[in-house]
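FAQ: What does a ligand-bound record look like?

Like this one, built around pyridoxal-5'-phosphate:
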Amino acid sequence: MNTENKHTATNYCELAQPGVRNLKPYLPGKPISELERELGISNIIKLASNENPLGASPLAIAAAKQALEEVELYPDANGYDLKQKLLALHHVDMQQITLGNGSNDVLVLLAETFLAPHCNAVMSQYCFAVYPIATQATGAQLKIVPALAAEHPDMPLGHDLNGMLQAIDDATRMVFVANPNNPTGTAVAAAELRNFVVQVPEHVVVVVDEAYSEYVADADRCDASAWLADCPNLVVTRTFSKAYGLAGLRVGYALSNAQIADLLNRIRQPFNVNSLALAAASAALDDKAFIEASRAMNHAGLQQLQNGCQQLGLQTIPSRGNFVLVNMGGPADGWYQQLLRAGVITRRVGNYGLPDYLRITIGTSEQNTRLLEAMQQIAVQQQSGRG
Ligand SMILES: *Cc1c(COP(=O)(O)O)cnc(C)c1O
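The answer part, i.e. the structure of the complex:
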């Protein structure tokens, strides 16, 4: 095939709708295979995308394998079996659940449903990168509310919910809150979040993204789906990508009032969730022990990373997720590159406006130890002037 560009006078950028033309693409974590190719090394660990180091439940894997036997058939477009399990979990009706190809899919469906060039969406500085992308792609405006200060005693870099309320105007159609938030790891208490949600005017859809909910300790967990009955403008999103360990299969969901779910259902692709993903997610919900083990390991690993960073003189943002944002005390890029050479992939967050931080996913205790040893060596090199 001829791969040379044909000469053309047409600039397709100018033809694209302005919202798309000005988008900056999402920057994913570096895949292990890419670093293997680049450096010719093996035994790489990836602590870059908040994946579950324990893998997935054996029940989920077995169900996906079983589903392969019928891979010639289209998936159940309504996801009946999975929805049955979800309605028992969340005490909602079937009509309130929208399944997605990852929760990213439902976030995009929500933006496509409610946003257009004349309106805006409110979100926090340091919010999840998918919110501005999904918003801008529709041509709607972003209203970014400054985050709490890095010195804030309870929630450094966290969402300023009062500021977000004040930013809402007549043209606002959506507001996004991730709880816990990525990349900061910060979380608001249930009472505070509920107080915010009930104050958001009804013409604004308030999305509460609970991607990391399963990692929050029972006593602190906030399940916003319990408020759906008296908050008609609330949408709660969840994912199987994080604690459930099914990121590669792509499945997530939104819980909302039935009218909103009906709208999302009109624009989604009829088969947006594949049959392996449906089967694996259903089975994963039966394995509570796997989620508990993941949460316990994460809790221990978070302590390990926080202590290790403290010993290196590096500050961390208190996290409720399966990752921690570490202040590297200066531009983080050098650390990132040196960690790559040590076979450890972390995540830079310069694109979030946090160039001095790395976001590090909590691994197994062995992985955390390896990361901390690599960081220790880099710190020593830096002190002897070779960093
Ligand atoms: C990882 C993540 C998601 C989920 O992404 P999927 O598309 O479900 O894999 C959603 N929101 C936040 C805040 C996340 O960090």
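Follow-up question: can I read anything off the structure? Yes, for example: The pocket of pyridoxal-5'-phosphate is lined by residues 50, 102-104, 128, 178, 182, 209, 211, 239, 241-242, 247, 252 (CB under 6 Å).
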